[in-house]
Design goal:
Helix content: over 70%
Mean pLDDT: 87
Order of helices and strands: HHHHHHHHHHHHHH
Number of strands: 0
Largest sheet: none
Number of helices: 14
Low-confidence stretches: none
Strand content: under 5%
Distance between the termini: 24 Å
Number of domains: 1
Shape: globular
Radius of gyration: 18 Å
Length: about 280
């Protein structure tokens, strides 16, 4: 398969994530749990040999990093998927895609990596665009602000996952890393669901099929193909392509739910995407 086709399919598959979450019509913690749990079970036969060998060779510090990375990923799915119950697909997906900006901020705070001034300015512009989205949604449904806050929390926790896992990706084979993080995330989400009184059973067949589709299409398919694309393209190039997700997800939301983004979301989204594009291009 052409590397460009692989990357294009990754963007398409990832864009179905928010749509499938909405269609599942189940509690966010249940959706989050089954998304990573089913994906882990499908991956297990292909990754267990590498995982068994690689995990046993990890030192104590890296094992803690693996646990922390899985915890951050669990919180990312829990908050972002919950946001789709309160705000539009366009706002939620746009805001959660600010994760690279938070990753830069976290790297500056904890790893002392100072970004160029152009990148610092672009980050400020992107957050101004996010504020426009929040302002526009705040004039509508009161729950939209909560949804936007949850989407931003999803962006922050995704950034933590990316920064914490940076050193692990070099220490573990890709399959072993992904299986380890997803397994930890599934365990954390199961505990959160149990402690919150969320049932993990008793759903209709349609919901189980949507849980499986979430695991296969955006998780294994989308993120799997994106990881494969990293072997052919620099990370910023892959990141720039993945900025197509908010656009495609918004189009799909209009086709499936007749959900049209408002003018503030469109304006703020254009600013966020432009600033993100500049950041990723400068880091190339």
């Amino acid at each position: 398969m052409s590397p460009w086709l692989t990357l294009s399919l990754a963007v398409l598959f990832v864009s179905f994530g928010a749509i499938l979450v909405r269609l599942a019509a189940a509690p966010p913690l249940a959706v989050s749990f089954y998304r990573v749990a089913i994906a882990s079970l499908i991956l297990l036969p292909f990754a267990q040999r590498d995982a068994r060998r690689a995990w046993s060779a990890l030192d104590g510090r890296r094992r803690l990093l693996l646990l922390a990375s899985g915890l951050a990923l669990a919180l990312h799915f829990a908050t972002w998927i919950a946001s789709l119950s309160y705000t539009t697909v366009a706002s939620s997906v746009l805001l959660v895609n600010t994760a690279p900006l938070f990753a830069i901020v976290l790297s500056r705070l904890f790893l002392h990596e100072k970004p160029p001034r152009v990148v610092q300015a672009a980050i400020a512009v992107a957050f101004a665009g996010a504020a426009l989205i929040a302002f526009g949604d705040g004039t509508g449904s009161p729950g939209s602000l909560l949804g936007n806050g949850l989407a931003l929390a999803g962006a922050v926790t995704l950034a933590v996952y990316q920064v914490v896992g940076r050193g692990l990706r070099d220490a573990l084979p890709l399959n072993a890393y992904v299986l380890g993080v997803w397994s930890v995330a599934a365990c954390v989400l199961a505990v959160l669901a149990r402690s919150s009184g969320v049932l993990l059973g008793g759903y209709p067949v349609r919901t189980w099929l949507l849980f499986t589709a979430l695991a296969v299409v955006p998780t294994l398919g989308g993120h799997g193909l994106a990881n494969k694309s990293l072997r052919s393209f620099p990370a910023p190039t892959v990141g720039l392509f993945l900025l197509g997700e908010p656009v495609l997800a918004s189009i799909l939301a209009w086709l499936v739910f007749r959900e049209m983004p408002g003018p503030w979301t469109l304006a703020g989204g254009a600013i966020v995407l432009a600033a993100l594009g500049l950041v990723l291009a400068r880091r190339a």
